[in-house]
Amino acid sequence: MGARTLLFVLHREQSVSLRELCRLGRLSPAFAAELIDEGIIEPSNPEDDPLRWRFPMAAVERARIAVQLAQDLGVNTPGAALAVDLLERLRAMEARMRSLERQLFAGE
Questions:
Q1: What backbone torsions phi and psi does residue 15 show, to the nearest 5 degrees?
Q2: pTM exceeds 0.90, yes or no
Q3: Rounded to a whole number, what is the distance in angstroms from the first to the last CA of the chain?
Q4: Structural domains of the chain ordered from first start
Q5: What does the pLDDT look like over 76-99, one tens digit per residue?
Q6: Per-residue model confidence as pLDDT tens digits over 8-37
Q7: Distance of alpha carbon 61 from alpha carbon 73, whole angstroms
Q8: Cβ(48)–Cβ(13) under 8 Å?
């Protein structure tokens, strides 16, 4: 019998620990600290001990993007922060535009 793969389905409303964030985001704890310092990712409970921090699932995606920018393009952490924020704004505007288009064309 072959190796078994365990699959977890994570919901957008779920949160993850710092360790899980590093594993899912494919980043080192040191780089995670840089991302937190730069405001790219933020724990939902920053007043707690860092070992108890929880991060929203959106932080995993933001961390992955930052890692990719750093590894593939050599973007520094402040540059990654700017790029991640701009990408999120662009996605939000595109979603809003699709919604408005649906409303516009639904009336025809």
A1: -125, 160
A2: no
A3: 58
A4: 15-106 (1.10.1660.10)
A5: 999 999 999 999 999 999 999 999
A6: 555 667 899 999 999 999 999 999 999 999
A7: 17
A8: no
